[in-house]
Amino acid sequence: MSSSVSLSQTNVRPRRPLHVSLWIAQILLAGMFGMVGFMKIATPIAVLAQKMAWVTGAPALVRFIGICKLAGAIGLILPAAFKIMPKLAGFAATGLLAIMVLAVPFHIYRGEAKVIAVPVLLGVLAAFVAWGRFQAASIQARE
Description:
By secondary structure, this protein is an all-alpha fold.
């Protein structure tokens, strides 16, 4: 009988560090994508063009990317925190991963290969969150 208790306790302990790690990754990603998304939505194109020259040629794309990043940031936190459709956190992470996968060749094409470490790192974190929330440590919906 005591062996079954110790087995159940060992099954619970490894999941807690994973949940904590996933929450840390979700919060970091939400902060980063939320700030960048809001900046791309709220900042005038002329001001953005001072730091990113390509935005003048595709202002609608900049706004769309900003909306997607902001929605992804919200989707990483709110559904999981309130346990209302918590699988949406995994879908948000998958969407942000897709944005980062597309950002890498875009930066390479523009001759900005030195900056691809950031989208690669964010993509790895987003993949970790997607894997964790879909497979390893999913959050149960509130009943």
